[in-house]
Amino acid sequence: MTASTPSTPAFTPADAGFAARVRASYARQGAMATLGAELVAVEPGYCSIALVPRPEVAQQHGYVHAGVVAAIVDSAGGYAAFTLFPVDASVLSVEFKINMLAPATGERLLAEGFVVKSGRTLVITRGEVHAEQGGKRTLVAIMQQTLMVMHGRKEG
């Protein structure tokens, strides 16, 4: 799925080097490294992050913990927004709501973030997390998120 799906408008990044900037930022994220999450795709207004379930990220029933699911989709939405930011800006989550729809289990989880509206100060995204098993995808969570464009504040 890409940022140009019928339900998601096409966006033009403010920085031609957006993908490299997103990948460099992601590489500095200790949280995603600790979880074992991998940045899969970066396109204007879109980002996906994958996680292979393992006992270290599971809850007591063996499913991936809801907090871990929230973390990967929060990052996917944040980086989807970040693809559209000017080079001198950074991103910060303001709020998000997540609904867990099915147990997060399978061969791989894929969190996708899609920009819905990109404003000067705030960006609204939606996110989906799918569990992949045997070639099938099951929607396990949906998210709505608000992010802040931190103008004049580079990362690090």
Please give a structural write-up.
By secondary structure, the protein is an alpha+beta fold. The protein has a single domain (18-150), classed as Thiol Ester Dehydrase, Chain A (Roll), CATH 3.10.129. Helices cover 21% and strands 39% of the residues. The chain is built from 3 helices and 6 strands.
Features:
single chain; 156 residues; alpha+beta; Thiol Ester Dehydrase, Chain A; 6-stranded antiparallel β-sheet; 3 helices; globular; disordered N terminus
Secondary structure elements and pairings:
Elements: H1 18-27, H2 30-35, E1 38-43, E2 46-51, H3 66-82, E3 90-100, E4 108-118, E5 122-133, E6 136-150
Antiparallel strand pairs: 1-2, 2-4, 3-6, 4-5, 5-6
Tell me the CATH topology: Thiol Ester Dehydrase, Chain A
Query: Which CATH-level-2 architecture?
Result: Roll
Structural class: alpha+beta
Give the radius of gyration.
Answer: 15 Å
Strand percentage: 35-45%
- In spatial order, strands of the major sheet run 1-2-4-5-6-3
Estimate nothing, just give the exact number of structural domains: 1
Q: How confident overall, as mean pLDDT? A: 93
Number of helices: 3
- In the CATH hierarchy, what is the superfamily? Hotdog Thioesterase
